[in-house]
Amino acid sequence: MGTPVCATEAPRPNIVHIFADDLGYGSVGFNGQTQILTPNLDALATGGMNFTNAYAAAICGPARAMLYAGFHNGHTLVDRNQNLNGFGGAFRDDGQTVGDYLQAAGYNTALFGKGGFGGTNGSGNLKPNPWIDDPFSLPNRQGFETFYGYIDHGRAHSYKIDSLWTTEEPADDDFDGVDEVGEKYYDFSLEGLWLEKTGNHSGNNAVNYSADLIADRTVEYIRSRAGGDQPFYVEHASTIPHFDIHAILDEPDWFVPYLDHPNTDNWGYNEWAYAAMITRMDRHIGQIVASLRDPNDDGDESDSIMDNTLIIFTSDNGPTTADNAPMWFFDANGEKRGGKRDLWDGGINVPMIAYWEGVIEPGTTTDVYTDLPDFMPTALELAGTRGPVGMDGVSIAPLLSGQGIQRHKNWIIQEHHEWNGPDGDSLNPRWAIIKDDYKLIKYSNGTLRLYDLIADPDENNELNIASNQSMVDELTKIALAEGVEREDSYTVEFQTWDGSHGALLQDPTHWSGTAGATDPVENWSALINNTTGEDRSVETLYVNVNLLGVEVRGDNGKQTLRVNRGRGVTGRNEVRISEGGRINMDAGHLISVRWVDILDGGELTGQGNVLADVYNDGTIAPGLPDDLGQPRREPQPLVIAPGATPPSDTDQLIAPVVTLEQEADQYLATTNPSFAVLDSTGRLNIDGNLFNTADSRIVIDLGGTDISDAVNPEHDHVVVTGAASLAGGLEIALIEGYTPTLGSSFEVLVANTIHGEFDPTEVDVPALADAGNHAVTLALLYEDYGIDDNPDRDIVRLLVTYRGDFNGDQMVNGSGDLTILTLNWLSHNASWQDGDANGDGLVNPTDLAALTLNWLAGTPTGGADGIPEPTSLVLLGLGGLVIARRRRSV
């Protein structure tokens, strides 16, 4: 369940992501390191938020794929470093990375440092003559319009190379016999890249430390973009402290930060070099911060952009002992077990800071679980856009900005298919899952190990598998469903439906994208978008459809997805209903292990079951929309493409549903076969939690009297098994020809717990005919006590009652109601205060007339007219305006 967070609103920020390479959790001062100096990072941590449960990957390539794609390694092409360019490339040219989406949102995008995909290594000390072998995976093809750095992991192991790749055409060589920074080395302009000299050459390969050159370019870029019309996203992917640790010893000032540092007498060259290069990276970070704080570098910080820039710092994996790196000497893993290539926390739990001046409260520490796929949805939410549906990442923007609802991350998934890391245990890890503070690791020989990360943070006391078999089975089932044991080529596929009006969702001939024409399958990020200019709908009929994510959108014309009787549509990670989109439940099932998102302009309509949390920023309307005909009653023939697998009625759903035959029998036994009731009524069950935003609406049609049959209600309503957080509008409409009688009541929304209330100024109820001489209205009641033999239910109810009963005693008289009206009238209270008898949003003399109408007509009482006496725990509103607040705090 999401956690509400509140703070002041901030504009779209610049985003600077700093990515260290092989930096362990304990390698920095803010996580307890006392020997290695990281003053700039420590200052960011002191002024920002420190994450204690931030996770990356076990090795470099998969970490970067997770960061850029928003998916974990069960759903990316990069499962290991050995296949960085395998199976058609680490990435495809499908425009689905964080850089692609931020560019489309109006951001300038840049990557400086280790891109890591698309190129060959080069050989020799200076790594000359590298080449491009995977154009699709190049940074400039993956959303970064500006790039300077490495496109190969192997070449990025060296700091004294002769050239770096760039998207800015360098100056021609002046042939003066001196290789200089900024001179052209080789032209790959057909791919949008050039090789630029670094100044290092065979006569002197110690002129420039590549990490310094990369930092300089990052700073130059920020200074050139600061204060511009477009926000920017900068990825500073440092190669420190990965490999070649002794290269720093060639720099003339490498030792300066440690001249007065105590307790270094027992250090050797490995310790000196390792500490010095991490401090060198920290100096680069200080330079980046300075460029944000004083962009024109004139000493006057009035041009600072720090208050509109989010800085996130983290690492790609844990520390290593490779190349003599002294990780044990410095406790670089933070005394956690293992390091790089281990799936114990020493290999995957990494340092992370978020700094946003004036937005993030200084000195904050959080134990919220997060991992690298979370960066993309976070950045996109802050930019005011969204990425492909069904990403594994969960945005932490609400946690950072203090706005909105922070959604819960169900689990963290890790894969690793190479050799073991520095831990003494020789088992090679294969995958791990973290859920509810427990971690299950599976090794390549089939061994399973289970750990309690709270009671055993260093993972040295594994739990007994047999004693925890049910947990092990659950975690294993989840991990397998997330694709951890699929082949390397298994990845998310981006598919688009382009069928005509009335076509079937499961028909493979209507899908196109990276997977080609096949039956919809569980690794699809599927988009159903209408661009035709005419409204259209697509149906599921009698086949369950299981997808990783599904979005229904209408860019040019309304797009409806109808979920038919007893059938289920599953978006494992997400079901998204965007502007112009509508999902109509024809007694079907909508399923996600995470959530259904109803965005502004999206609609969820009809009656059926939603097995997920629902985040509503659009419209929920349980009734059958006027423009949709009745659901089909008989199976329709399904055209199957040649070679495709026919769909089965026994397709497995995440949550079980009854068979078509059972569901049909139950449905026909309780519902009029003519479907007359479905024209005006509907029950929408949400098996989860409901979160309404201030812009949301719930639309209810009234077409009967009291609820007497939970299976066959006589008006629309919503039933929530968890908590309902109310906000936004409530719209009530009467079915043509129906008039509710005085004393009638209608359950609009039932939940285990209700928090908040509908905005009283956004509640729209129809006018009712007067009962005799008495003005009658629909009153809104919030009841938070148990009724109907269920002590746990909270209810929002509509009651047909008299206008003017301000004190809720079911009597309209001078001793009670007139006193309340007068007190509010004289004190000029606002619209939602007691005394707005005519519902015009004001408390003034015109309300006296509305009150007098009932008062002079004979002082009606509850007993005489059959109006139920409200209890003391009732919140009563007339015409959507709250007039008695006696509800417990929640």
- Global structural class: alpha/beta
Radius of gyration: 31 Å
Given the C-alpha coordinates, what overall shape results?
elongated
Main beta sheet strand tally, sense and closure? 22 strands, mixed
Strand content: 25-35%
What does this structure look like?
The protein is of the alpha/beta class and 890 residues long. The protein contains 13 helices and 41 strands. The strands form 5 sheets. It has a 22-stranded mixed beta sheet that branches. Strands 8-9-7-6-5-10-2-11-12-3-13 form an 11-stranded mixed beta sheet, with helices on both faces. α4 (210-225) runs parallel beside α5 and α11 (814-827) packs antiparallel against α12. The chain is elongated, with a radius of gyration of 31 Å. It starts with a strand and ends in a 5-residue tail after the last strand. Mean pLDDT is 83; it is low at 1-9, 634-680, 705-712, 785-789, 828-833 and 857-890.
Brief summary:
It is built from 13 helices and 41 strands. It is α/β, with parallel strands linked by helices and 890 residues long.
Protein topology:
Blueprint: E1 3-4, E2 14-20, H1 39-47, E3 49-51, E4 54-55, H2 60-69, H3 98-104, E5 108-114, E6 146-150, E7 163-166, E8 184-188, E9 193-197, H4 210-225, E10 232-237, H5 269-293, E11 309-315, H6 345-348, E12 352-355, E13 364-366, E14 370-371, H7 375-382, H8 397-401, E15 405-406, E16 412-415, E17 429-435, E18 438-443, E19 448-452, H9 469-481, E20 493-497, E21 503-504, E22 511-513, E23 524-530, E24 536-539, E25 545-554, E26 559-563, E27 568-577, E28 581-598, E29 603-616, E30 619-621, H10 660-670, E31 683-686, E32 690-692, E33 697-702, E34 717-726, E35 729-734, E36 745-756, E37 763-764, E38 776-783, E39 794-802, H11 814-827, H12 845-855, H13 862-865, E40 874-878, E41 881-885
Parallel strand pairs: 2-10, 2-11, 3-13, 4-14, 5-6, 5-10, 20-23, 21-24, 23-25, 24-26, 25-27, 26-28, 27-28, 28-29, 29-30, 29-31, 29-32, 30-33, 31-34, 32-34, 33-35, 34-36, 35-37
Antiparallel strand pairs: 1-15, 3-12, 6-7, 7-9, 8-9, 11-12, 16-17, 17-18, 18-19, 20-22, 36-39, 38-39, 38-40, 40-41
